[in-house]
Amino acid sequence: MKKINKLIKTIQLLLKKPSLVNLIIDSDFRWDNYLQKKHKNLTELPTINIQDVITKEALNLSTWSFLGGGSMITDILLLKYLASKINNCSYFEIGTWRGESVINVAEFAKECYTLNLSKEEIKALGLSDRYAELHGFYSKNKENITHLYGNSILYDFKSLNKKFDLIFIDGNHTYDFVKKDTENVFKHLVHKNTIVVWHDYAYHPEKVRSEVLAGILDGIPHHKKDNLYYVSNTKSAIYYPLKIESYKEITPLKPKLNFEITTKITS
User: What pLDDT is stored for residue 75 in this prediction?
Assistant: First the structure.
């Protein structure tokens, strides 16, 4: 009887607000089932220790706001360290927001390109002028950063006629966008040694975002899937051209690493 009452209440809610059906369509339950069926129970990527791609060498984040919508500190440290180890690094990212990721990478990269919706496109989605203006807040006036504008699912990546050493995919995190962004990056922007990082593969270091994983797996060339990993202590997945020793995480996680963080507030 309780189940019937719940069903009736659910139907009543859907009739009042049909958009609630999107919560079901986009739920982790749906995407977990999709992964189990299409990708043979691959509901998470093998984990690599962050120390396998970042050494104990100290790195500073010169720009960090501690505001909403950004990455974890470890995500940006990952990008910054990778860029620092690539000679004359050429960096590309999809999704800029305030520009915290690219401004930090730009300290080491020779050149950086970012792709984001234009202010007009952002406002056309019903978002505020203030939200549109804040995109690229930190990165607007940096000499080695080029801002490109457009919807990534429609953008002509081929027209760039350029390959990149390090790519960060952090745009729209729905399945269709993640899949298309991944396809475009591997079709047009990578060379044999390119490293690709996807943000928000996980909600947090102990919970996979299944819809994003589905987009990654369906977008990447099949022969490159064996080089996909989750980087511990981040929210990021990575395609690394070399094989790295990996393992399966067991949650809840027992801390294996400790991070020392020193802060300094500047205006």
Answer: 97
108: tokens are 């080491």
Comparing CA positions, the residue from 59, 99, 63 lying closest to residue 82 is 59
Q: For the chain, which domains are there?
A: 39-239 (3.40.50.150)
DSSP letter for 186, please.
Answer: I
**What is the distance of C-alpha 36 from the center of its chain?**
22
Q: Provide the token pair at 197.
A: 């990082």
Q: Are 225 and 213 in contact (CB under 8 A)?
A: no
Count other Cβ atoms within 10 Å, centred on residue 193: 12
The C-alpha angle 86, 206, 231, rounded to 5 degrees, equals 15
Backbone φ and ψ for 44, nearest 5 degrees, come out as: -160, 155
Instruction: Give the pair of three-digit tokens for residue 173.
Output: 């995190």
Convert 231-251 to b/e letters by CB count within 10 Å (16 or more is b): bbbbbbbbbbeeeeeeeeeee
pLDDT bin (cut points 50, 70, 90) of residue 232 is very high
For the stretch 136-179, pLDDT in tens is 999 998 999 999 999 999 999 999 999 999 999 999 999 999 99
pLDDT score for 23: 46
> What single letter denotes the amino acid at residue 206?
E
Instruction: Give me the residue label for tokens 């298309």.
Output: 180
Q: Is the dihedral of CA 230, 44, 253, 69 positive or negative?
A: positive
Ramachandran category for residue 231: left, alpha or beta (phi over 0 → left; psi -120 to 50 → alpha): beta
Q: Which of 260, 234, 263, 232 is nearest to 247 (CA)?
A: 232
Is the pLDDT at 20 greater than 50, yes or no? no
Q: What is the pTM of this model?
A: 0.91
* 88-104 per-position pLDDT tens digit: 999 999 999 999 999 99
Could you give the CA distance from residue 137 to residue 155 in angstroms, rounded to a whole number?
A: 23
